[in-house]
Write a structure and sequence with these properties.
Shape: elongated
Bound molecules: S-adenosyl-L-homocysteine
Helix content: 25-40%
Number of strands: 7
Radius of gyration: 22 Å
Distance between the termini: 43 Å
Largest sheet: 5 strands, parallel
Order of helices and strands: EHEEEHEHEHEHHHH
CATH class of the largest domain: Alpha Beta
Number of domains: 2
């Protein structure tokens, strides 16, 4: 069982989207589970204080290291990575998701205010992970996004394992465009090749479309892909982008 623990001041934010669809079904099947640690329970004094003003002055409040450590230490670690969601962290990506999915679970610390005292990040070997170059009000949404990306990779969670291997980033490319019924919609048709039944041509079209789209939207990904693949210039698919 893949065990996920969230340390948060806002338990009511959970499970949110983690409690629906394939993730909830997988939880009921015993593939994974989640629990919540309320940081406030480890707060100081009658008011259960968890934060203090920053040393050196300035705006906002900082989460205390002793309170954070008490919450962390209350959990069975079980060799799970201890993650602090933070805009300063390593940018989260599909490769990281795959690595975490191979482990026993996750402990996710959701920051608030100006964030966490540096000493507990060091003292508990927290791994700082960022969801992108923007600033959220707290780590809860970030922790849920990370967890959703990881849990859907666990064996038995996504219905069709094939659909995982063809997705954006798994191949090093963004995914090709998708079409379904109706065949014509608001004057826009479906590419003929997709209706041809010729699986080889369809696969070629999808690969070329994926290359063209990646080249246009994410030159960084395309450059990395080019280094490891023999690139033929995309012949079809360009016209869509
Ligand atoms: N003062 C901090 C931002 C604090 S935002 C700074 O400038 O780096 C409050 C909390 O939201 C953070 O502690 C973190 O847990 C969460 N958070 C904000 N943006 C995030 C992001 N891009 N990725 C992951 N967590 C984020």
């Amino acid at each position: 069982m893949f065990e996920t623990s969230f340390i948060t001041l806002f338990p009511e934010a959970f499970p949110g989207p983690l409690g629906v669809s394939i993730l909830e079904r997988a939880r009921k099947e015993g593939i994974w589970d989640w629990d919540i640690i309320q940081l406030r329970d480890f707060g100081i004094g009658k008011h259960r204080n968890v934060d203090e003003t920053p040393a050196g002055g300035g705006a906002g409040m900082v989460l205390r290291p002793d309170v954070a450590a008490a919450a962390i230490d209350s959990l069975p670690r079980q060799e799970r990575p201890l993650i602090y969601l933070s805009p300063r962290g390593k940018p989260f990506d599909q490769e990281m998701a795959r690595t975490f999915a191979e482990g026993p679970g996750l402990i996710l610390f959701c920051g608030r205010f100006e964030g966490l005292d540096e000493r507990v990040i060091e003292g508990r070997d927290m791994i700082e992970v960022s969801m992108g170059d923007f600033v959220l009000a707290g780590g809860e949404v970030a922790a849920m996004a990370l967890t959703e990306a990881v849990v859907r990779l666990l064996p038995g969670v996504a219905g069709n394992e094939d659909s995982l291997s063809e997705e954006s980033f798994e191949t090093g490319l963004l995914e090709h465009p998708q079409y379904t019924l109706p065949r014509e919609w608001e004057g826009r048709g479906t590419p003929d090749v997709l209706l041809s039944g010729d699986h080889k041509r369809i696969a070629e079209w999808r690969l070329n479309s994926a290359k063209a789209l990646t080249k246009q939207r994410r030159p960084d990904l395309y450059a990395a892909y080019s280094e490891t693949h023999d690139i033929q210039a995309p012949e079809t698919g360009d016209e869509h982008y």
